[in-house]
Amino acid sequence: MRWDNHLPRMSATDATTTLAELKKRILAFSHEREWEQFHAPKNLSMALAAEAGELMEHFLWATSEASRTTVQDPAKRAKIEEELADVIIYALEFANMTGIDAAAAIERKMAANAKKYPVEKARGRSDKYTEL
User: Fold this and answer.
1) All residues at 6 or more sequence positions from 77 whose CB lies less than 8 Å from its CB, including other chains
2) 72 in helix, strand or coil?
3) Domain ranges in the chain?
4) Contact 7, 25 (CB under 8 A)
5) Fewer CB within 10 Å, N side or C side of the chain?
6) What is the rounded average pLDDT for all residues in the chain?
7) What is the pTM of this model?
8) Please, is 38 exposed, middle or buried when counting C-beta atoms within 10 Å of its C-beta (0-12, 13-18, 19+)?
């Protein structure tokens, strides 16, 4: 049985697609291929890091301004989007395989960051929280 038969084909956008929907699609994709056996936290974290490296390669040695220009070039942007998608897919697959609620984890981390980087101290600064 194809697990994704029950999931509508998505015309996904950030405004219309939930994390839960994405996690279901990713889980179905992996399950159909019987890839769970390979998706230990160690392997997924390594794959995530590798894909993040591939994303970074698009900006290697570029100035900050050149990196902003790079993402505006349609051909380069398409490749960058693919690498970003790989990073997000592996992050959500990691959440799937470990039972981590990604949205809750993000909320907790954002709350912790708000305490470490209060607006009145961190606005316009790139210092580490211990230096504020």
Assistant:
1) 70, 71
2) coil
3) 17-100, 102-132
4) yes
5) N
6) 91
7) 0.85
8) exposed
CA distance 4 to 46: 26
- CA 108 to mean position of chain CA atoms: 17
CATH 1.10.287.1080 applies to domain 17-100? yes
CA distance 87 to 89: 6
Phi-psi region of 2 (alpha: psi -120 to 50; beta: other; left: phi over 0): beta
Cα–Cα distance, 61 to 63 (Å, whole number): 7
For residue 3, pLDDT beyond 80: no
CA angle 86, 94, 116 (to 5 degrees): 95
- The predicted pLDDT at position 123 comes to 86
Give which of 128, 92, 91 is closest to 113, Cα–Cα: 128
Q: Tokens for 51, please give them.
A: 């894909």
**DSSP class per residue in 19-65:** HHHHHHHHHHHHHHTT-GGG--HHHHHHHHHHHHHHHHHTTTT--HH
Whether the CB-CB separation of 22 and 96 falls below 8 Å is answered with: no
